[in-house]
Amino acid sequence: MSIQTKIVKGKKYLYFCCNENGEPRQVYCGSDSSPTAKRRAAELELPELKRQKNEISTKIKRLEKWL
Q1: Across the chain, which distance is largest between two alpha carbons, in Å?
Q2: φ and ψ at 51, to 5 degrees?
Q3: Under 8 Å CB-to-CB from 33, ≥6 apart: which residues?
Q4: Edge-to-edge, what's the strand order for the sheet holding 23-31?
């Protein structure tokens, strides 16, 4: 999962890239210079990062109990 900049015909565009059900997925967010596109990309990535953070915290707690 990441926010990537792609150049298409000399112009930069933002995409949110992730995997869904094992398949790569790219969501067009807009022009790289657009605040709206940056906000859209962040809105797509942030919930996934928070979910990963919770999973990692749970794993850390479980492993700490083993020590």
Answers
A1: 55
A2: -65, -45
A3: 12
A4: 2-8, 11-20, 23-31
Tens digit of each residue's pLDDT (9 = 90 or more) over 47-62 = 999 999 999 999 999 9
| pLDDT at res. 21 | 87
Dist. CA 56–CA 40, nearest whole Å? 25
Q: How far is CA 66 from the centre of its chain?
A: 32
For 32, other C-beta atoms within 10 Å of its C-beta total 16
Pick out the chain residues at pLDDT < 70: none
SS3 44: helix
